[in-house]
Amino acid sequence: MATPQFILRHAEPTMNPSSDELANVIIHRLGLMPRKKGSTEKMHRVLIELYEKAKVASRDKTPTAAIMTVEEMALHAGISRQTMYDYIKRWIDTEFITKTSYIGSDQKVVVGYKLNGPTLESAFEKTRTRVHNNLDLTAKYVQELQRIVKNEKISKRFEDNRKENLPSEQQETLVVEEKQEDLDSPEQDLKGP
User: Fold this and answer.
1) Between helices 70-77 and 81-93, what is the axis angle to 10°?
2) What does 145-187 look like in DSSP terms, one character per residue?
3) Are 147 and 153 in contact (CB under 8 A)?
4) Which of 16, 29, 61, 26 lies closest to 46, judged by CA?
5) Residues 6 or more apart from 100 whose CB is under 8 A from it?
6) Could you tell me the pLDDT band of residue 133, with boundaries at 50, 70 and 90?
7) Cα(38)–Cα(23) distance, integer angstroms
8) Could you tell me if 97 and 123 are in contact, meaning their C-beta atoms sit under 8 angstroms apart?
9) What are the domain boundaries of the chain?
10) What is 26-51 written as a DSSP string?
């Protein structure tokens, strides 16, 4: 399974933005826009349609009304179904939408996607929590990295000090051994006093 990527962008709406413009800004800020420039400029319409369907589902008390199939999403975005599958992955990774299924009127299972909450705001809160959790975990990794680097420096300094002291100890040992050999040599025994 691929690791999710969070690409947060800086985008600002103009004064008195339309719903399309504001939806487009939200899509860009959350990193849900297409990566290729010019691939589609209508991805924000998927967001608006998901919101509209969620409102209708809540009002009519029919949860299945909030679900959009990939074909519907692709139609609103103006792209092919297969390309929409590629984009949906990012929407799911950020937990902005969820995959769900239900049995349609023709007794067939319908797989679709809906906002991860009853409103845009609640879906955004789940995305926000996901990103915050990622940043919190990253903060822990940063602290751990700092601790490890500090410990490695201390350990290296200790090793360097030990190596500096080690050769002088080895020299003393060698000198002592040489003196012992001189005393134990057979030549001294032969010469006598």
Assistant:
1) 100
2) HHHHHHHHHHHHHHHHHHHHHHHHHHHHHHHHHHHHHHHH-HH
3) no
4) 26
5) 67, 111, 112, 113, 114
6) very high
7) 17
8) yes
9) 1-183
10) HHHHHT-S-SSTTS-S-HHHHHHHHH
The structure tokens 């487009």 sit at 24
- Nearest CA-CA partner of 17 in 44, 37, 51: 44
Nearest to 50 by CA among 34, 35, 37, 32: 32
> How many angstroms separate the CA atoms of 130 and 7, rounded?
13
How far is it, in rounded angstroms, from Cα 101 to Cα 68? 10
Of the candidates 110, 90, 108, 91, the one whose C-alpha atom is nearest the C-alpha of residue 100 is 110
Tokens representing 167 are 């050769």
pLDDT tens profile 30-81: 888 876 666 677 888 999 999 999 999 989 998 888 999 999 999 998 888 8
Six-digit token pair at 138?
Answer: 């990253």
Measured torsion, CA atoms of residues 103, 105, 110, 116, in degrees rounded to the nearest 10: -80
Mean pLDDT of the chain: 81
On the question of pLDDT at 174 being above 70, the answer is no
| pLDDT score of 31 | 80
What is the mean pLDDT of the segment spanning 110-120? 90
